[in-house]
Fold this sequence. Notes:
four-stranded antiparallel β-sheet; 13 helices; eight-stranded parallel beta barrel; single chain
Amino acid sequence: MTRTLTSPRPRRRLRAISLATLTAVVLAGGVAATTAQAAGSTLQAAAAESGRYFGTAIAANKLSESAYTTIANREFNMVTAENEMKIDATEPNQNQFNYTNGDRIVSWARSNGKQVRGHTLAWHSQQPGWMQNMSGSALRSAMLNHVTQVATHYRGQIHSWDVVNEAFQDGSSGARRDSNLQRTGNDWIEAAFRAARAADPNAKLCYNDYNTDDWSHAKTQAVYNLVRDFKARGVPIDCVGLQSHFNAQSPVPSNYQTTISSFAALGVDVQITELDIEGSGTAQADNYRRVVQACLAVSRCTGISVWGVRDTDSWRASGTPLLFDGSGNKKAAYTSTLNALNGGGTGNPDPGTGCTVTVSRANEWSDRFNVSLAVSGSSTWRVSIQTQGGQTLQNSWNATVSGTSGTLTATPNGSGNNFGITLYKNGNNNNPTATCTVP
Ligand code: G3I
């Protein structure tokens, strides 16, 4: 399968025509009927309007269930194997590979004109017993062999691979997760990416994680720093996957769009890879809308996948987190998602803020570094910049900036929406975080 999806394109101008106008045109002569149909009556069609994909996780053992495949085939054009390409599934015994169920999913996808996300080549979890018991250079070699063998088997058939999954700790440390893979050396992630590139040069290579949706979280910043470092050193990486599993304890953050745009500013695609949002009714529908609108607001946010078809297919079934109920009926969340993909839906993607700020690292010296900040959504704004411990402000331009450490506040000074600051590191080389509000 070749990679045919390209960068999202600007929504066609016709999409801005009001429903009333469109209806009038259709009624007047039927000339616009095909345009009306092209307005996306399914998730995949609506996402395709802006050049994006809309996908789902698929379980091989459900492909014989027609109620399941009917929805999956109609609504989605990207498929992720929920468990079938993981290490325990594909290499149950060392050097004995089993692609039966992974191949079933790829075959179903291809015969129905869909593309495939590969999930996942290197992960601390769902390792087969033999790998769990390995360490050191033997484990490093086994991991690289696994990446090479699996990526080679699926070469040319995978749109994007989750090369490495969930390598960072939760909490405030921003540290790598302790695992047998991590203990083989800090460079295990880049080694995995290099092996994947060599095995399948045409697949996009993603780093995928959860709890990386809130821009102010240490884990998000740690992944951002990893990607920035990889881009700076030429380690092959093409995309970041935000799993985006949301519930009451982990809600859709108000700065979600900032997270997406900040990763994109590093020069990688952003894919929402495992979306599910626990809840029901209007609240759930509204959260789905916010996620879709945040993605659509960033051109390099190239697609969204939900983590299952019906609520009953979900790993969190009791939280009813998906777009179809157990009987296959479309939920309110489905309608709000479809409307948002079609460019409709009310509300701001980052409700309550009215603007978005993107933070990107610029020049760097031994004692200080520059940070570029770009505001979108409003020409009046207030940006709160949270510096990291010890850092102090040395300089600023194109905005009025108050404060010298901790939280800095920036407001427009007549120079537009792009401004910058220089921070003294004082021993802390991490990026500041920023949030935007319209006063
Ligand atoms: O296949 C066996 C089946 O034979 C047995 O009867 C059944 C009951 O014991 O278990 C089945 O295996 C389960 C498998 O899902 C398939 O249903 C495993 O025990 C169970 O651990 C596994 O859970 C998966 C989980 O990853 C494992 O980490 C979920 O389906 C899958 O949705 C979930 O997906 C992860 C992503 O890979 C990474 N991000 C988080 C996401 C949610 O946890």
